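call fold target=Sec-independent protein translocase protein TatA
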Amino acid sequence: MGSFSIWHWLIVLLIVVMVFGTKKLKNIGSDLGQAVKGFKDGMKDGAAPEQPATPPAAQVTQQAASEPSTTIDVQAKQKG
């Protein structure tokens, strides 16, 4: 009883098709395919070298010079 013959698998397949129907099995297959594709795309994105999150200092100073300042300077008092 270790291995099943082709007839056992065909009977199991027939029962599964009768229980779930072909449309349901098609939807399950396409959902599984999309999940595998999404996983592969995620693995590709994770393997790509990451870009630095902060721009270089030269670009920051150029942006600061071109944009008006919206910060307010406040002197903090220290408790002594």
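return ok
The chain has a mean pLDDT of 75. The two ends are 86 Å apart (CA to CA).
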